[in-house]
Amino acid sequence: MRMDIEKIAKLARIKLTEEEKVIFGNQLEQVLTYMEQLNRLDTQGIEPTSHAIPIFNVFREDQVRPSMPREEVLGLAPSQEDGHFKVPRIIE
Amino acid sequence: MDLYRLTIHELHELLMKKEVTSREITEALFRRIKEVDRKTQAYLLLTEEEAFQQAERIDEKIRHGEEIGDLAGIPIALKDILCTKGIRTTCASKILANYVPFYDATVVQKLKGEGAVFLGKLNMDEFAMGSSTENSGFQITRNPWNLARIPGGSSGGSAAAVAADECIAALGTDTGGSIRQPASCCGVVGMKPTYGRVSRYGLVAFASSLDQIGPITKDVTDCAIMMNAISGYDPFDSTSVPREVPDYKQFLIPEAKGIRIGIPKEYFIEGMDPEVEKAVREAIELYRSLGAEIGELSLPHTEYAVAVYYIICTAEASSNLARYDGVKYGLRCKEYEDLLEMYMLTRARGFGQEVKRRILLGTYVLSAGYYDAYYRKASQVRTLIRSDFEEAFRKVDVILSPTAPTPAFRIGEKVNDPLQMYLSDIHTIPVNLAGIPAISIPCGFSREGLPIGLQLMGRHFDEGMLLRVAYAFEKNTEFHLKKPNLA
User: What ipTM describes this predicted complex?
Assistant: First the structure.
C-alpha cells in the first residue's frame, strides 16, 4: 500500500470507519497504479500549467464599498454569538 | 400545442406575436414536470411562486409593447451548484442540505436580467463529482430515453430535464465533461465554453482551474442564445477574460464548406462501442459531403489525460472543499469533544463516498513528499496536452470526436469501480485541461434507442466556429428532433 490512509484522512479532516479505510484504501491504490503511467513520460524542463489560459493579476482602485451583509452571513452559521462565528473552545 | 416541447426561439416568436403568454408557457412546464418528474427525478427543488411572478412581469412588459430579449419569459432550470439568492442551493450534498445563499451567481443574475423564468434546481453528482448523477446525496436521476440507464453526469439533472421537456433549457457546469457527457447520454446539445468566457462567481467551486458554466439546450440555436446571455467579463471573477462577446447567433450558418475538420486518431480507441463509432463515422461523411476538408491528426498525449485530470481535479477539490468545516455555513455534527473532532465528524457525515474519495486522493497527491511525483508531474503533462491542441489547431479549425465512448450505461453498473467510472470521461477531459471550448450534439441512436453524441472542439474563444459547424450538422439531420417516450 502506497497510501497511509489513516494519516491522509486526518490531514483531510475526515473520520473514516474501519470499513471505509479498507474500501477507499483498495480503490485509491488501484487509481494510483493507473496514474503511474505518467512516469513513462520524460517531463524534465517542461513548465507546469496551472491555468490553461494566461491569468494576470487584476487591480482596482481601493475604494470603500459595502461588504457582504453581516447579519445574513452570520445567519448561515450553525452557531454564532455577538457578531462572531462560534466554535468549541480551542485555548485552555 | 404542447408548449413544453418547443425551443427558446420558437417560444420567443409566439410571445412576440402575442399568441401565448409566459404564464401559459410556465404553467405548461409545471404540468409537464408534475407528470414526468416522478420518472426522471431531475429536479431537487421547484420554485413555482417566483417563476409565476417573473412570468407575469414579462407578460406585463409585452402587454405594454416593451421590447423583450430572446430569453424573456422562457422557463429555464439551473444545476443546483449555482447560487440563487434566497433559494436553497445544495450541490446535491448533505453538507449543504439547508444552505440558502444571500446572493445570485453572476450567470443567474444575467439570466434574470434577460427575463428568464426559473423553474427550479436540478440534481447532479454531489459537488459535480461523477459521471452518472448516482453520486447525488439525495436521489438518482434517470435517463428519459431508458429509465434503467444513467443520464450522465455530473449535470445529469440538467440534461435529463431538457430531454424530457421539463424545462426549455438549463445551465450545467463542466469540469471534465459534466455538460457534454450528459448531453450526449440524453440526446441534447451541451456546450462547455472556453475557460474564462463565463464568470464562475457564485458557482460552488470544485476544481477552479477547470470548472466552467455552460448551456444545455434542445438545439444549436438555443445554445447560441444562452451563450449570448451568460458570456462576458465579470469583476467578481478574476479568471474571467475581458474580451468582447460576439453575437453568437451570427454564426448560425448552415454551411461547412472549406472548414477544416481534424479527426484525432487517439480518440477512436479500443473498447469503444461499435455503434458509437459508426454514428461518428457517418457524421464525418456528412461533413465531407457538405464540403468540409477532413483530415486525420494526432493528439499524442491523450492517453495520459485521465491520470492528469484525476490528480489535478482532486488536488484542487481537496483545497476547495476544506471550507466545509461546520463553522461558517452548512452542516455541523451534533456531538464532539473538541474542534478537530467537530471537523472530522461533520465532514464524515456531510460528504458522500465519491467526495470523500476525491478529497483523500487530492490530499495525498499534495502531501509532503508526493507533491512533485503527482501534482507537479501532472501539471507538466497538462502542458503537453495543451500543446497537442495548439499544434493541431494550426492545421484545422475544429476537432471532431465522439463525446463518450459508449451510450448511457446502466444505473449501478460502475458505481463500485471508480476507475471504470473515471474512464468514461476519456474524450471530454482533455478539453478542460487545455481550457478550450467544445460542444456535444446528438448524432445518432443505438439499436436500443439510446442517444449518441458528437463532440466538436475548437480554439480558445472560438465558440462561434463550433456553433457554426454544429448548426450545419443539425440543419442536415433530424436527430435533435427525436423525443423520448415518457408516457
Answer: 0.95
